[in-house]
Amino acid sequence: MQNWLYYTTMLIKINENCSELIDVFSGLSQVMRCCCRDEAFCEGVTFHQFMILDAVAKVKELNMADLHQILSVQKSTTTRLVNPLLKKGLLCRDKADHDSRAVKLTLTKEGVETHKKVRLCLMDFYQKATNNIPEKKKTDVLECVNIFINAIKNSSNACSCSKNKC
Asked: Quick one: pLDDT at residue 22?
């Protein structure tokens, strides 16, 4: 009888924690929609396009294959996101030196400038967001969010929600 009560109590606590996590995910999903939209938010660039510009800016020259992993999307989605940046003249696509079938991306002069402007725009947005966190808790909040992100990344391979990775 005691074991049954113990396990029942544990299941209730697990269920409450899962419900709380579902609420957290739902809330995160709602507030992060600005990052998932296909509409421009600054300098005619979407958030995903900024992620591409930022990834290229960090390494100066980025292989398209590496970009798939950075964005965690399929190759066709990466191509769909990169093409407007090429058309706007923000990125340059060239054959990679090591393999003529591989493609490398670099920022154009206009791409460098656009990246800087969008980065400043995002920094202003994030500054406003962090201003809503009590000063004494900012470091803790950012640390906890990073821990949470890593926990999700580390457990995504074990996701049983679908046949695909979460």
From this structure: 77
